[in-house]
Amino acid sequence: NILSESIFDRRATFHVPAVVSICTELKPNIFTVLLSGGGADKGRRTIRFLTDKRSKRCDQLQSNHSLAVNFYDEAKKVRIWLQAISDLYNRDEAAFKAWFTKSSDELALKY
After folding, report:
1. 14 and 32 in contact (C-beta within 8 Å)?
2. Nearest Cα residue to 81 out of 18, 33, 31
3. DSSP H helical segments within the chain, as ranges?
4. Going by DSSP bridges, is the β-strand pair 28-32/18-22 parallel, antiparallel, or unpaired?
5. CA-to-CA distance for 32 and 18, rounded, in angstroms?
6. Long-range residue pairs from 81-86, CB within 8 A, at least 24 positions apart, any chain
7. pLDDT in tens, 44-86
8. Which of 37, 71, 79, 110 is the most exposed place for a label (fewest CB within 10 A)?
9. Are 107 and 86 within 8 A, CB to CB?
10. Cα–Cα distance for residue pair 57/59, rounded to 1 Å
11. pLDDT tens digit sequence for 85-107
């Protein structure tokens, strides 16, 4: 499907979704991410993207795990909007595996 293909194809439009989190002041915060194909699991309905543990985003995600993810393909006029729960990995087995792809900090979304 279009979402599964976008996880592994960096040229796919859905490879760069917008993610909305709630910051510590309870205001929405929107950011664009690049999906990390190494952690996608269709059976568990998870996708992954990387983030820097020094960023404010990590603090936000530790205080409120609720996210929304918006995928849009302008050419196909297709939009997918997901409600998700985030899991932040740092200095554990999941982060160690991710280190060999791009970074040691990896965020898995369950939608």
Report:
1. no
2. 18
3. 2-8, 56-63, 93-99
4. antiparallel
5. 4
6. 82/109, 82/111, 83/111, 84/109, 84/110, 84/111, 85/109, 85/110, 85/111, 86/21, 86/61
7. 777 777 777 788 888 888 888 889 999 998 888 999 998 988 8
8. 79
9. yes
10. 5
11. 888 877 777 766 665 654 434 44
pLDDT band at residue 111 using 50, 70 and 90 as cut-offs: very low
Contact 34, 43 (CB under 8 A): no
Average pLDDT value over all residues in the chain: 77
- Answer yes or no: is pLDDT of 22 > 60: yes
**Six token digits for residue 108:** 């898995």
